[in-house]
Specification:
mainly alpha; about 300 residues; Mitochondrial carrier fold; disordered N terminus; single chain
C-alpha cells in the first residue's frame, strides 16, 4: 500500500462533509458531557427551586441516596442525553455554518475580518436559537423529573407522553423563551470568548498554530474552553434559575411575563444567583471538555481545531 493511500482523506472545509462532521462532533461533545454531570445538575436544580432543601451538594447526594436510592442521583439523565445531543448538533454544526455564511454571504470577507467578534456573536446566537427548539421538550422533562418529589416520570419517553397528554404541544415549549434567555447569551459568550481567548493564547505562544502538534492545539482548546466556561456560567446563571423555577412553578393560564414577575418578586435579585458556585464548577468543566472532545473529533476526521 502506498504512503499516500495510508494518509486519512482530508475533508474539504465548508463542504457538506465538513458541516456533517461538525454536527456529529457537537453530538459527541455535548450529549455525554452533560449526562456525566447529571448528579450535580440534579442538586443544583433542586436548590434553585428550594434553597433550604439541602445544606450542600454532598448533603444533597447523601439525602437522595438515603431517601430515594442510589440510582436516583441520575434522575433526568435520559432527557439530558437526548436533549443535549440534539442541541450540540445544532449548536456546533450551526455555528460553523453560520460563521462561514455571515463572513462570505452577508458581508464582504474583508469587512467581516475587521469585525470578527460581531460575526462570532451573530453566528453563535443564530445557531443556539435553532438548537434550543430541539432541546426545549427534553429540558422540560428533565427539570420536571429533577424538581418534583416523587419524580414526574420514570423515563424520558414516559415523560414526553405524560406531558403531551396533560398539556399538549405547548407544554413542550412552555420554557422556550427563558431557555433562549439562558442559552443564547451563554452560547454567545461560550463561542466568542473561546475564539478570543484561544487567539490570545496563540499570540502569547508566538509559534504559528499550524506548526504546533495536534496535542498542543487541543490543549489550547481545553484551556480556552475552561476559561470561557467560567464566563458563560456567570452570564447565563440568572436565566438558568428562572428556567428551573418556571418549569416547576408556572401556574395554569399564567403568561411567561406574569410567571417571571411573580417568581422574581418571591426570590428577589439574590435568589437569581442561588447555586452559582456549583454552576461555575459544572459549566467550566463541561465547556472545557466539550471543546476538548469537539476539537479532538475534528482532528480525528482530518479537520483543523477551532480558533
Amino acid at each position: 500500500m502506498s504512503e499516500k493511500s495510508k494518509q486519512p482523506r482530508k475533508i474539504e472545509l465548508y463542504s457538506k462533509e465538513f458541516y456533517a462532521a461538525c454536527t456529529v462532533g457537537g453530538v459527541v461533545a455535548c450529549g455525554p458531557t452533560h449526562s456525566s454531570v447529571c448528579p450535580l445538575d440534579l442538586v443544583k436544580c433542586r436548590l434553585q427551586v428550594n434553597p433550604t432543601l439541602y445544606k450542600s451538594n454532598f448533603d444533597g447526594w447523601k439525602s437522595i441516596v438515603r431517601n430515594e436510592g442510589f440510582s436516583k442521583i441520575f434522575t433526568g439523565i435520559g432527557a439530558t442525553f437526548i436533549g443535549y445531543s440534539l442541541q450540540g448538533a445544532g449548536k456546533y454544526g450551526g455555528y460553523e455554518f453560520f460563521k462561514h455564511q455571515y463572513i462570505n454571504s452577508v458581508v464582504s470577507p474583508e469587512l467581516a475580518n475587521r469585525h470578527l467578534t460581531t460575526v462570532y456573536l451573530c453566528a453563535s446566537a443564530t445557531a443556539e436559537f435553532l438548537a434550543d427548539i430541539m432541546l426545549c421538550p427534553f429540558e422540560a422533562i428533565k427539570v420536571r423529573q429533577q424538581t418534583t418529589l416523587p419524580p414526574y416520570c420514570n423515563n424520558v419517553f414516559q415523560g414526553l407522553n405524560k406531558l403531551y397528554s396533560t398539556e399538549g404541544l405547548g407544554g413542550f415549549y412552555k420554557g422556550l423563551v427563558p431557555l433562549w434567555c439562558r442559552q443564547i447569551p451563554y452560547t454567545m459568550c461560550k463561542f466568542t470568548s473561546f475564539e478570543m481567548i484561544v487567539q490570545a493564547i496563540y499570540r502569547r505562544i508566538k509559534t504559528p498554530k499550524d506548526q504546533l502538534s495536534s496535542l498542543q492545539q487541543i490543549s489550547v482548546s481545553f484551556l480556552g474552553g475552561y476559561l470561557a466556561g467560567i464566563l458563560c456560567a456567570i452570564v447565563s446563571h440568572p436565566a438558568d434559575v428562572m428556567v428551573s423555577k418556571i418549569n416547576s412553578e408556572k401556574k395554569e393560564g399564567e403568561s411567561m411575563v406574569q410567571a417571571s414577575k411573580r417568581i422574581y418578586k418571591a426570590i428577589g435579585f439574590g435568589g437569581l444567583w442561588n447555586g452559582l458556585f456549583v454552576r461555575i464548577v459544572m459549566v467550566g468543566t463541561l465547556t472545557s471538555f466539550q471543546w476538548l472532545i469537539y476539537d479532538s473529533f475534528k482532528v480525528k476526521v482530518g479537520l483543523p481545531t477551532t480558533g
